[in-house]
Amino acid sequence: MEAEQVLEKILADAKAEAEKIKSQANEREAAEQTKLDEQLNEYKKQTKALADRLAKDKKLHLLTAARMDIAKKFLAEKTRILDEVFAQARRQLQNLPDEEYRTLCTKLMLEAVETGDEEVIIDDNETRIDHDFIKRVNRKLAPGYKGNLRLADERQQLGAGFILKRGKIKNNVSLEVLLARARKELDIELAKELFSE
After folding, report:
1. Which residues contact 169 (CB under 8 A, 6 or more apart)?
2. Strand 119-123 relative to strand 150-156: parallel, antiparallel, unpaired?
3. Residue 167 has pLDDT above 70, yes or no
4. E strand segments, the chain
């Protein structure tokens, strides 16, 4: 399974888990609604005429508070699950077999190259992206690119992936940045679902 497919599967699993959590939250809200309705009916019986007006106010307040509490719990649980999913994705991507990692980085590099004469900055501990890897990528660059990528002397703490640098311009293609972008897109999508009701 290619790394891109792994990432897509992880994102699909995260979306499915989020749907499951949303469904559970809806069930909890329904249970809370039933419980609140029972409490309000008892309150009405005990207070008779005065309770009619007060019960409506109380119900509105309790329902609003319950909905807010459920929404907070849902968001907290969603965040916890997404944190776990993306931590697992990060570990899986960093621990890809060497050839799969190189294939992923080749694809990412070919997509990220703008001129073909950038410097490639890698992680302090990177061993899978080396001069031979850069030569292979240079050979694969399509016509119109210089094919002069070179490994930079500078290294940074990236975890995995790379940065393409041309002059003062840097294009960060570290896996951390790619995962953050995927997480942001997923957060936006889930927020739309949560607040669309």
Report:
1. none
2. parallel
3. yes
4. 119-123, 150-156, 161-166, 169-174
- Domain segments of the chain: what residues? 3-92, 98-174
Domain 98-174's class? alpha beta
CA R_g for the chain: 26
Residue pair 116/148 in contact (Cβ under 8 Å)? The answer is: yes
Find all residues with CB under 8 Å of 31, minimum gap 6, and list them.
none
pLDDT of 50 over the 80 cut: no
**Pure H helices in 95-174:** 98-112, 131-140
The helix (run of H) or strand (run of E) holding residue 63 is: helix 3-94
Residues 97-122 pLDDT 10s: 889 888 888 888 888 888 888 888 88
Structure tokens at 176: 């951390």
- The distance of Cα 124 from the centroid of its chain, to the nearest Å, equals 25
pLDDT of residue 84: 83
Percentages helix, strand, coil for the chain (3-state, rounded to 5) are 70, 10, 20
